[in-house]
Amino acid sequence: MQFKSELPPVQVALDLVDLPRAINIAKEAVLGGATWVEAGTPLIKSEGMNAIRELRKNFPTLTIVADMKTMDAGSTEVEMAAKAGANVILILGVGPDSMIKDAVKAGKKYGVLVGTDLIATEDPVKRAVELEEMGVDIINIHVGLDQQVLNVDPVELVKRVSENCKKAKIAAAGGLNSETAVKAYEAGADIIIAGGTLYKSADPEQTARDIVKSLETGKPVKTDKFKKFNEDELGSAFDIVSTSNISDAMHRTGEMKGLKPVWNSERPLKFAGPAVTVRTYSGDWSKPVSAIDNCEAGNVLVIDNCSSEIACWGGLATLSCKTKGVVAVVIDGAVRDVEEILKIGIPVYARSITPTAGEPKGFGEINAVIECAGRTVEPGDWIVGDENGIIVVPKNEAMEIANRAIDVKEREDRVKEEITRGTTLAKTIRLKDWELKK
């Protein structure tokens, strides 16, 4: 087995749990130019060494990688993977030196390469130098899935490690796509690893081809897919996903309950923005109306009106929100002037509708922590709404949750693609295999 001298190999990381799906996706990626095929850790844990055997059977001439993430019994696990058909076995660089040294010896014994994954190392450059001295063949700079959602980029670390390690090959992994793969290559990566970019793609062949093209030309191939968003891009990120996606990303939490939209159903319903909060009392509309002046364009006004059936909100207040650029109003209470609100065109969610308004008494607070429709809302929390309902995303977790929700959507989009090819949901995800066993 030889490393390509002209271009780094593109490795498709199959971090799936179902072997038939993984093989089909790998076949498409290989048609696009991937030459290394990785049995990701989830696939190995799900399917065992049979995952490696099947990949070897389906790709007899390609390099098969086993991402074992080994922390103990390195020699034993290298032997297992090698005998199953792997050419490269990845273990963890944070493992004990004795394990790593023994794994390297086993690799030489069975004629395979041993790579170490730098994930979770406290000083990755220092550890990379130590690993190289222990004789590992590959050092994998790996920004894991749970770091990618925090918008951590592997490219700078690739550069630092490659400057300090001259014998071991450098692999780069961590959300690389056709725009960022070439940056990792220029930073010193000898192997480009693409996981979700390929296994979540509706067209892995074209996606792999775009990555290869970027490496061949030295120019990024522009893409609007498989990107991570930072704090300044949260509005764009939440526009991509549904509240269902966000709920899944938050482990089925975050939903406001019992509220219905005042909205023309013929128009798409979608909004997202940071909350301005109001606590008021039954029918008291003074603080809700005053809070409009605290809002900026893009805000969502969230009002705790004690589930009142006396309206604290109506058409004039909604019109005031439109002039300020408020994108939605959410009320745990009552609203009136429905016909006016529909004409104004700002989504207003409420618990009930009534013709009867309250009085402006002035009780309550603006921008306090409130309870609204069963959820705690702090000022600045992201409020996202659509036809499915409303989700509250805590502001301190908003970037992570947005990126996790996008990951949920991307995975679902791949399943949709497979269903449209003539199968069903249950067959695609092998539902019976994953039902709870008692």
TrEMBL record:
Organism: Methanococcus maripaludis (strain DSM 14266 / JCM 13030 / NBRC 101832 / S2 / LL)
Keyword check for Phosphoprotein: no
Record-given protein name: Orotidine 5'-phosphate decarboxylase
Limits of the Orotidine 5'-phosphate decarboxylase domain: 9-211
Keywords (A to Z) from UniProt: Carbohydrate metabolism, Lyase
Classification lineage: Archaea, Methanobacteriati, Methanobacteriota, Methanomada group, Methanococci
Transmembrane segments: none
Gene Ontology process terms (BP): 'de novo' pyrimidine nucleobase biosynthetic process; L-ascorbic acid catabolic process
SUPFAM superfamilies: Ribulose-phoshate binding barrel (SSF51366), RraA-like (SSF89562)
MF terms in GO: 3-dehydro-L-gulonate-6-phosphate decarboxylase activity; orotidine-5'-phosphate decarboxylase activity
CDD domains assigned to the protein according to its UniProt record, in alphabetical order: KGPDC_HPS (cd04726), RraA_family (cd16841)
